[in-house]
Amino acid sequence: MTTLRFLGCGDAFGSGGRFNTCFLIRDGAVGALIDCGASSLIAMRKFGVDPNGIGTILITHLHGDHFGGLPFLLLDAQLVSRRRALLMIAGPPGLEKRLHEAMELFFPGSTGIPRKYDLQVIELEAGARRIFGPVAVTPFLVKHPCGARPFALRVELGGKTVAYTGDTEWVDTLIPAAQGADLLIAEAYFDDKPIRFHLNHATVLANRDRLGAKRIVLTHMSPEMLVREVAFEAAEDGLEIVV
Question: Catalytic residue among 11, 35, 65, 76, which?
Answer without folding.
Answer: 65
